[in-house]
C-alpha cells in the first residue's frame, strides 16, 4: 500500500533540515520546519513552507511531546528526524506512528532492538557477522575486568547508547580500566540517559569503512557502496570519501554480504548504515549500525546519483525500491569535509553571528549548509555548520576540487576549521590514502607541539 506524503515535518535544524527541504521541493512535498527561539531567523525556518515555534528552550528539538503535538497541529502526515537529536529515539518514532503519522526511518521496534550497541554486537555474532572481541551486552566493572583479561589490553570502554565518538576511552591496563570505568559510567549516564558501558578490544591501525543500505518494506535490501571515514578526531569523522581508496571488489562483496545479512535479519526498513573497522590484516569487524540518514551521505549521492533522502521518503510511503541491485560501479570519486565553527588552533567552539559569507564558485562542488549573513551560530548545538563535498573523475581530482572550494569559501564573524581542513587534505598521508583512524590525532599533536597555527 502506498501512502503518499504531502506534508512533511522536519524535526531538526541546520544544514540537514535545509537538505531535507530541498528534496521536499523536488518531490512536491510541503516542508514544515520547527524551531526554538534562538533559531527564529535560521535558514531552515526561512526556506520551509511553514514553520512552528518550539518555544524558548534551546533544547526543544529534543522535546518529543512538543514536536508531536506541533506536527499534529500543522497537519503533517510524516516526520523526518534528520540525524542527531531524536533521530534514533524509539519512543519518538513510536509517538509519531501512534499519532497516525508516517515515521521516516526504521520501525520504532527495530530502533529499540538496535539501540544498545552491545546488543547489535550480539545479534551480529549470532548470525556469523564478525565483531571485535569484547562483551556481548552491557557490563559491570566486574564483568569488564574478566573480559578484558580474556581478550587482552588495550581495551576500549564505550557507551552502550553512545554516538558521535562521545564517551569512548582507551584502557591500557587493569589499573586504568578500574580507574576509568566509573568515570566513563558517570559521564554516559548523564549524556546518554540510562546508558551503560561495554568493552571491546582496541585494535591498532584500523580504518573506518561503512556501508550505505536501502531497504524497502517488500524485503528488498541493496547496498550503495562504502564510505571511508578514517580521518577522525576524538573518534569523530572529519573528512569522508567514497569509494574507499583501499577497498577491493572482493572486500566490497564481503561487506555487502555482512551488511545485507544483518539488515535482513532484523527486518530493517529505510536507509541505514553499517559501520565496520578494518584491521591491518584486512579483516573486517562490525562496530555499529546507524539507524538514520548520516552526515556523510552526500559522498554516496555524488558517486551513485541517488538522492538518499528521496529514497527514504519513498520507502516510508511503502513503495518498492526501483534500485534492484547493490551497486559495484561508481561514477568517479567524492570527498566531504565537515566545516566547524571553531578556532582551528585551540579547537574550541566559536559561536557567534555570521557577518558575511562567500561561497566558492568552483566546479563539481556541493555545499550543504544553513548559512547566510546575519545568521546566528548558537552555542547550544553541534558546531558543524557546513559540509563541502567535491566530486572528481579520480580521487586526486576530487581532492584538488575540494581544496580549491575550501580555499574560496569565506565566512566572517566566526572562526572556522576551513584552514585546518585544507592542511589535512594536503598531507602526504591523505594524498596517498595511507592513514589510519589515529592519523589525524597524531598529526594535530605534532602540529601543536611545534606551535604551528592555521593560516
Ligand atoms: P556517527 O559518528 O555516530 O556515525 P555522525 O558523525 O554521522 O555520527 O553524525 C551524528 C552527529 O551529528 C550527532 O551525534 C550529533 O553530534 C551531530 N548533530 C546532530 N544534529 C546536528 C545538526 N543539526 N547539525 C550538525 N550536527 C548535528
Ligand atoms: P560512535 O557510536 O561514537 O560513533 P563507534 O563504535 O562507531 O562509536 O566508534 C567510533 C570510532 O572509534 C570508530 O570510527 C573508530 O575510529 C574507533 N573505534 C571504534 N571501535 C574501535 C576498536 N575496537 N578499535 C579501534 N578503534 C575503534
Ligand atoms: Mg560510529
The CATH superfamily of the largest domain turns out to be: ATP-grasp fold, B domain
- For the largest sheet, list the strands in their spatial order: 13-12-9-10-11-14-21-19
As a whole number of angstroms, the C-alpha radius of gyration is 21 Å
Q: Would you state the CATH class of the largest domain?
A: Alpha Beta
Tell me about this structure.
- The chain is an alpha+beta fold.
- It folds into three domains: 98 residues, Rossmann fold; 69 residues, 2-Layer Sandwich (Dna Ligase, domain 1), CATH 3.30.1490; 243 residues, ATP-grasp fold, B domain (D-amino Acid Aminotransferase, Chain A, domain 1, 2-Layer Sandwich).
- Helices cover 34% and strands 25% of the residues.
- Strands 13-12-9-10-11-14-21-19 form an eight-stranded antiparallel β-sheet, sandwiched between helices. It has a five-stranded parallel β-sheet with strand order 3-2-1-4-5. Strands 7-6-8 form a three-stranded antiparallel β-sheet, with helices on one face.
- A hairpin with a 5-residue loop joins strand 12 and strand 13.
- Helix 4 packs antiparallel against helix 5, helix 7 packs across helix 8 and helix 12 packs antiparallel against helix 13.
- The longest helix is centred in the middle third of the chain and has 18 residues.
- The protein is globular, with a radius of gyration of 21 Å.
- One adenosine-5'-diphosphate (ADP) binds next to helix 1 and strand 11.
Amino acid at each position: 500500500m502506498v501512502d503518499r506524503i504531502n506534508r512533511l515535518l522536519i524535526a531538526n535544524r541546520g544544514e540537514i533540515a535545509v537538505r531535507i527541504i530541498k528534496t521536499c521541493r523536488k518531490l512536491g512535498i510541503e516542508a514544515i520546519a520547527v524551531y526554538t527561539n534562538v533559531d527564529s531567523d535560521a535558514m531552515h525556518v526561512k526556506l520551509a513552507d511553514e514553520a512552528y515555534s518550539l518555544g524558548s528552550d534551546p533544547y526543544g528539538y529534543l522535546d518529543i511531546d512538543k514536536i508531536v503535538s506541533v506536527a499534529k497541529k500543522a497537519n503533517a502526515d510524516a516526520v523526518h528526524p534528520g540525524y542527531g537529536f531524536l533521530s534514533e529515539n524509539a519512543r519518538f518514532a513510536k509517538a509519531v506512528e501512534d499519532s497516525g503519522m508516517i515515521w521516516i526511518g526504521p520501525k520504532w521496534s527495530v530502533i529499540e532492538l538496535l539501540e544498545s550497541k552491545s546488543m547489535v554486537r550480539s545479534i551480529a555474532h549470532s548470525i556469523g557477522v564478525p565483531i571485535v572481541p569484547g562483551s556481548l551486552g552491557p557490563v559491570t566493572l566486574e564483568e569488564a575486568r574478566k573480559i578484558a583479561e580474556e581478550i587482552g589490553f588495550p581495551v576500549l570502554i564505550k557507551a552502550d547508547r553512545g554516538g558521535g565518538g562521545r564517551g569512548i576511552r582507551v584502557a591500557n591496563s587493569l589499573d586504568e580500566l578500574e580507574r576509568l570505568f566509573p568515570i566513563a559510567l558517570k559521564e554516559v549516564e548523564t549524556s546518554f540517559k540510562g546508558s551503560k558501558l561495554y568493552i571491546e578490544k582496541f585494535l591498532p591501525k584500523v580504518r573506518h569503512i561503512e556501508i550505505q543500505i536501502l531497504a524497502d518494506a517488500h524485503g528488498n535490501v541493496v547496498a550503495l557502496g562504502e564510505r571511508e571515514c578514517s580521518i577522525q578526531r576524538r573518534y569523530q569523522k572529519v573528512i569522508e570519501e567514497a569509494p574507499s581508496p583501499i577497498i577491493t571488489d572482493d572486500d566490497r562483496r564481503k561487506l555487502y554480504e555482512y551488511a545485507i545479512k544483518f539488515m535482513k535479519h532484523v527486518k530493517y526498513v529505510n536507509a541505514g548504515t553499517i559501520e565496520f573497522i578494518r584491521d591491518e590484516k584486512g579483516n573486517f569487524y562490525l562496530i555499529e549500525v546507524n539507524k538514520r540518514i548520516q552526515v556523510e551521505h552526500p559522498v554516496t549521492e555524488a558517486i551513485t546519483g541517488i538522492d538518499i533522502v528521496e529514497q527514504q521518503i519513498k520507502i516510508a510511503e511503502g513503495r518498492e525500491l526501483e534500485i534492484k541491485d547493490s551497486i559495484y560501479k561508481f561514477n568517479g570519486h567524492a570527498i566531504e569535509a565537515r566545516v566547524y565553527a571553531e578556532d582551528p588552533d585551540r579547537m574550541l567552539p566559536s559561536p557567534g553571528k555570521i557577518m558575511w559569507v562567500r561561497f566558492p564558485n568552483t566546479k563539481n562542488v556541493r555545499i550543504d549548509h544553513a548559512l547566510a549573513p546575519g545568521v546566528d551560530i548558537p552555542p547550544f548545538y553541534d558546531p558543524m555548520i557546513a559540509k563541502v563535498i567535491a566530486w572528481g573523475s579520480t580521487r586526486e581530482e576530487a581532492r584538488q576540487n575540494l581544496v580549491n572550494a575550501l580555499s574560496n569559501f569565506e565566512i566572517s564573524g566566526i572562526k572556522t576549521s576551513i584552514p585546518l581542513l585544507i592542511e589535512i587534505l594536503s598531507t602526504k598521508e591523505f594524498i596517498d590514502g595511507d592513514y589510519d583512524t589515529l592519523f589525524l590525532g597524531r598529526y594535530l599533536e605534532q602540529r601543536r607541539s611545534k606551535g604551528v597555527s592555521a593560516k
